[in-house]
Design goal:
Length: 220
Amino acid sequence: MSALPQILENRYSVRGFKPDPVPQELLETIFTQSLRAASNCNTQPWHTYVVSGEMRDRVSNAMLAEVMSGKGPSPEFDWNVRYQGEHKDRQWGSAMALYGAMDIAREDKPARMQAMGRNWQFFGAPHGAFFTMEKYLGIMGAVDMGIYAQTLSLLLEENGIQSCMQGALGQFPGPVKELLGIPDDYGILFGMSFGYADDHPANDCRTDRVGLAEGVSFFS
Ligand SMILES: Cc1cc2nc3c(=O)[nH]c(=O)nc-3n(C[C@H](O)[C@H](O)[C@H](O)COP(=O)(O)O)c2cc1C
């Protein structure tokens, strides 16, 4: 069995960043290249909003204010899946891996909530991205958006820039859309924090994967 390609070995979800921004010219190169991602019928349904500097802070503060208001999330797409069976087990496993790395006990709800809140602070990253598509697209658009986001995350990693995809960034779309002027017929599906990893304990988190037999069936 050959070794995992370096880029896949290197990429993992990073949840702690140095404040140093990525140079704008490099960002423009990477985001141009990410537009090469495949999409159904080449529809390219994505429009990405990248926030940095002062706007990053304003958007983060606005999302945190929504979280603190206690109103609850108002995602524009259906994120309400209740995982079952092995999916539930894996969801649990990934949460335990993260809280374990951060030395947060399972029963320590305030610490877990605080860790969750870091999502809306972009985990300290200098940049956040919001992935939007027209709302009518539904699942066909969502498929393309996932492919786009993975292309982007690998291009970032190739350039020594780490990232974390985040459903959490689509949970409080109201003030984000207002600040960024995102049209009503577009929705934020999910987002991503990115920048240069620091030595935050959350970055010690690693997740496992099922083996070939569990994930793939070959027929001939
Ligand atoms: C669509 C999507 C949404 C995600 N949302 C979040 C999120 O809101 N917060 C978070 O900390 N991680 C989030 N993640 C990261 C996953 O937890 C992570 O990819 C998974 O546990 C596998 O770990 P790895 O990326 O380190 O390989 C998300 C990943 C994807 C693909």
